[in-house]
Amino acid sequence: MEKHDGRQGRLGVIENAYVAAKDGRILDFGQTLPAGDFLGEEGLIVDANGGVVMPGLVDCHTHLVHAGFRQNEFKMRSEGMSYQEIARLGGGIMSTVRSTRAASLSELIEFSRARADEALSQGTTTMEIKTGYGLDLQNELKMVDAIGEFYENHPLEIVGTFLGAHIVPYEFIDDRMKYLHLVKEEMLPAVAGKKWMTGCDVFVEDLAFRADEAREIAAAARANGLSLHLHVDQFGDVRGAELASELGALSADHLDHTSERGMQKMAKAGVIGVLLPGASFFTGKGSYPDVKKMLSCGMRLAVASDYNPGTTPSLNLMLNASIAVTQMGMTCDDAILGITKNAAAALGLADRGAILKGARADLVVLDAPDEYYPLYRYGLNFVKRVVIDGRSVKVCK
Question: Of 175, 182, 111, which Cα lies nearest the Cα of 143?
């Protein structure tokens, strides 16, 4: 995943190669396997049979944990209703909030486990999971505990993000300040005590939170030791990219309507732009981020699934990368970097997303002739084996 003499292209491809891992880390790689039994008696050799070995995929923006689905809203959108109109009728995020609140912790874990397994089978090795469907102290903490279950007991590497500032729930609709106080003074301190919860996100949009409210939440997040991410500029330019730059966010996500000024500020501040092609595709509104302008401004771009039950019910990162290529104007190389190295950077993780000595041994073996074939044959799964922390955790027939 980096240029080097003797390697091919922007991705630094090595043909007829080996990768050696020990104690969960990449020990060595290249074309000539070192002599001797350098892996020890318990060393295992896996033949990729001419396939592709690449870094494990990193999904840096998901809403994996929830109860209920919203296929009825898909039908309503097909008949001409907008996302905002459906939300005003009690659908949208609040529909999932009601289902998630009604589910027990064990039910929430059970509902979500199959989705985690699905992501793993498609080559995802690290996944960010947000809260944001509880929207009160009890149910946000229930979501945190569900995320913790996957952190402790699922092969996926899990990064938890607090999204109590998703929208203002209906019971606080006439007292936004009371809910803001709840988020800052009660939810954030309780969430920050969990080792798997490392970030805080805020949805900045006309139907969600204002910039001044996001500033208050960001200050509280920093005080509790959490990194900052923002949902911004999805439905219109609310100057969210500029806000993310001002606040020193790790990432700003969506960016469908971000201005060139916002792009320039993000590039200067080093904020990773997380593109969510599946959301733009599935909502059908025909608007995608201007990737070429973003890259010309010097932005670093990641691609994520934005898996959620309303606007992106897909965990297929390769499919999202294909959409980024065909609809956003990304090159195939940029799309692959977007679901590996740059996605890891959007989570503040420097030890994965690339095959480098000392990096985590998170690898995917693809039954494909080259790294571009899965993007070209979009929608199909070419994953043959998934390795996380040096251990083979999934073998697909």
Answer: 111
Question: For residue 65, what are the β-bridge partners?
Answer: none
In the chain, what is the straight-line distance between the N-terminal and C-terminal CA atoms, in Å? 27
SS3 assignment for 193-259: CCCCEEEEEEEECCCCECHHHHHHHHHHHHHCCCEEEEEECCCCCCCHHHHHHHHCCCEEEECCCCC
* Parallel, antiparallel or unpaired: strands 52-55 and 57-59: unpaired
Q: How far is CA 351 from CA 79, 362, 364, 393, in A?
A: 46, 10, 16, 19
pTM of the predicted model as reported, rounded to 2 decimal places: 0.95
| Of residues 244, 290, 289, 291, the one with CA closest to residue 268 | 244
Tens digits of per-residue pLDDT, 160-209? 999 999 999 999 999 999 999 999 999 999 999 999 999 999 999 988 99
Domain count, the chain: 2
The answer on 230 and 95 residing in a single domain is yes
**Per the structure block, which two tokens stand in for 6?**
């003797």
With respect to residue 4, please indicate whether it lies within any of the assigned structural domains: no
The single-letter code of the amino acid at 39 is L
Q: Which domain holds residue 284?
A: 57-346
Of 127, 173, 168, 131, which is closest to residue 151 (Cα–Cα)? 127
- Compute the distance between CA of residue 331 and CA of residue 324 in angstroms, rounded to an integer: 8
Question: pLDDT of 67-123, one tens digit each?
Answer: 999 998 889 888 888 877 888 777 888 899 999 999 999 999 999 999 999 999 999
Question: Would you call 395 helix, strand, or coil by DSSP?
Answer: strand
Separation CA 370–CA 50 (nearest Å): 9
Q: Which positions ≥6 away from 333 have C-beta within 8 Å?
A: 9, 10, 11
